[in-house]
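Allow me, if you will, to draw on your knowledge of protein folds for a short while. I have a record of one protein: its chain in single-letter code and its fold written as discrete structure tokens. I should value your view on which stretches of the chain appear to form regular backbone elements. Thank you for your consideration; the sequence and its tokens are set out here:
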Amino acid sequence: MTLGVSCAATAMLMLDIAVVNTALPAIAREFDADFAALKWVIDGYTLALATIVLSAGAWADRSGRRRVFLIGAVVFTAASASCALAPDMLLLNISRIVQGIGAALLFATSLALLAPAFPGPTARSKALAAYGATIGASFAVGPLLGGVLTETLDWRAIFLINIPVGVVMIGCTRLVDESRSETPRRGDKAGGVAVIIALAALAYGLIEANTRGWTDPVTLAALGLAAAAIVGFVLVESRVAQPMMPLSLFSNPGFAGAQVATFAISASMFAVFIYVTIFLQGVVGLSPIDAGLVYLPGTVVMLIVAGATDRILGRVAPWRLIAGGLLAVGGGLAWMTIGGLDSSGWDLMGGFVLACIGAGVFNPVMSGIVLAESGLDDAGLATGINDVFRQSGIALGVAALGAVFPVQSVLSGGSPADFVAALDTALWISAAVAIGGAVIAALTMRSARATTGDIPSAQLDPTGDGTRGDGRRGDGTRGEAPMPVNR
């Protein structure tokens, strides 16, 4: 049940990044939205997720991961309904921000819930393979699902579909065991404010650079504020007693390299596909469903590869899998530059399949590394940090890559030739980012583990009463404590 709930939440969250891509042309037509407003449909969600997820992880470790997960499910489901009912772009983007806050609570707890539920290395590797497959497959199948819903119903259906899933997930969460950190950290308000300002200002500056120019005072002020906030964040985290992002974690090369690798795949593969999808519909002229079908073979390959990682993880060093996965992503993105004005769209499929092979290997291995290199007691914090790098990579990647595209979108009468030239540049930049991440992973992650082995029974005491949450003590005998409410 824990695996099912965690994977359902992850699928819903990743779909709401990917499923929107195919619907962007329809949203642009209904609201007569410019390119900058469309980018905020993606970045409003991912930035809210990235800036809140760290605080959410610490809160979950302190207050209970199941409890925070449930709150996130309620917020996310309600915000999805608000997105579906939005009358204009402003309210749609505001609703997406609220949706991102709910997503942050879910992301910070979904992986952390799996650690105590699957203490053995074999069971955990299989669970992580399923979790990783869910991440990759959801992102890949999102464009097709978005195309089907947009073309057969309406773009608003991409948000309405979250409501029944969310309701079922909320009902099933009561069957999940509660868990929390034995030594939880206190809140770090100053660090939380600093990271929100830093990421929001940086994304705003990168997006505004596309319309205002890099030397415009507004652009420079936003980028300057982002730089100052980043410096302030580092200073706060180095001095506060219990930081939201302990800098000491990054003294572990395996953990630090994992975050760079996560940022690299997000800022390259997952960020550039918003522009690839616009190319398929705005330049090639594919319908939303046909645009989604271009991604379907890669989806199948990603599912197969991710599901098989538990069989090879014990035979191949994790750093080799991470570096190899990123190299495949970079090669696939470079391959996709063959698309042009006379493209059918299907000529991009080979490159996408290669990139999906890399992502299929990357996701489950990375999940295991994050848990293994942090320890169970800080599972919520560690997964929160990893999600910051994942989501900020998407948000900043979308914003930065958007700066190379013409101001007037091809969706609103812009030049197809100019858009294709910009897409080639964006794909090459993305390929370089992925390959750079592979190099860094190879240099820093050679000692990284992707499994922790059996978890000591002392760490499986979510209730604090000397039992494991099922009335049994660490030695298997039943204690005198009453059965926890969640049972």
Residues 452-487 have pLDDT under 50 and may be disordered. The chain has two domains: 2-188+242-452, 189-241. Residues 86 and 326 are 38 Å apart (CA to CA).
